Structure prediction request, 419 residues.
Amino acid sequence: MVENGRLTRRAMAFVLAGGRGSRLYELTDRRVKPAVYFGGKTRIIDFALSNAVNSGIRKIAIATQYKAHSLIRHCQRGWNFFRPERNEFLDILPASQRVSEEHWYRGTADAVTQNIDIVDSYDVDYIIILAGDHIYKMDYEIMLRQHVQSRADVTIGCLTVPRADASSFGVMAVDETGRITSFLEKPADPPAMPDDPAHSLASMGIYVFNWAFLRELLLEDAADAESSHDFGNDLIPDIVAKGKAMAHRFDTSCVRDEGAPAYWKDVGTIDAFWQANIALTDFIPDLNLWDREWPIWTNALSVPPAKFIHDEKDRRGVAISSMVSGGCIVSGTEIRNSLLFTEVHTNSYAVLDHAVVLPYVTVHRSARLRKVVIDGGVVIPEGLVVGEDPLEDAKWFRVSPRGVTLITQTMLDKRAASL
Prediction:
């Protein structure tokens, strides 16, 4: 039986935030994927952290590895409101060879293993393993209650996806009770859900364990020289085969507006990143960032409101079906279906159409930019045209399979040097 009160008070969240995200190419040259900006003012990791806080979890650890400086700085500045005197903690755990001088984090499970003593110090009953690189809103309390009620060894968060799309995921075969009977990594013929032959259950990379159970399992795995020390490759298949693994359907714990679809995005490619950001400019976006009941916390910079100036023909500061963040100055620029992050400055006669512009970008006069992602801090030169000639764009910039052009300062510098 589940005791009265929120189980999340007796749980901790362990966020895995060490992966580079190589499919984002130059966007992760300077930062790890969870530190990539998203949605105008937040970063990707803010969603997992906000879900934890909004669910009632006040003990959080973040394991970092690849190019973690911007992520660590963001967490120190934006997530520094935890109060130790209230038994609240947010610890950042960089790979630091704490167990062996020969190894950094060797896998997702090893990242927890190397910090067993820190988790022990939290004195928790349950641990929720989270990926720090997905966009979604979820109440972990609901998943945790299912885990306790079912007496599972592990409960795995699962997306409902069309069978035709499931081959790119780790897929769960389940029985009528939701018990996982097999775990298949990117199967050619994904198993269907028992109650819906057109859909499959795909792993979200979210796992709930009793800490005592997981602790013992991690120590056994650490001693196995044949293991890759990874949850998805090693621990989860072993539990499915020998123990009790239960599927938790994201539909039941997704936080969303009434009638809205269950929203979960992996923005791990340039196309997916651009599309998810641009979709926020829709009249009613699937992801509600305006929900005061489930806010997405972040490092809220102290900047002035956005400003729009000039009102002349072809030189009018205007934004249509767009999101413009604080500190932006739109000076005589036409902006359509675009998202501007903090302190973007644009100049006269420029046009931005379906543009995702990361913080601190300057767009000089007469630039025309369509269907682009512009990295933070970039200075767009006067008269630059991107998005009208794919072959010309591909000479200097990265053009995605769906025609989205990524622009970084390094690319612009190389272009300038060759002209």
Q: What stands out?
A: The first strand starts at residue 11 and ends at 16. The chain has a mean pLDDT of 94.
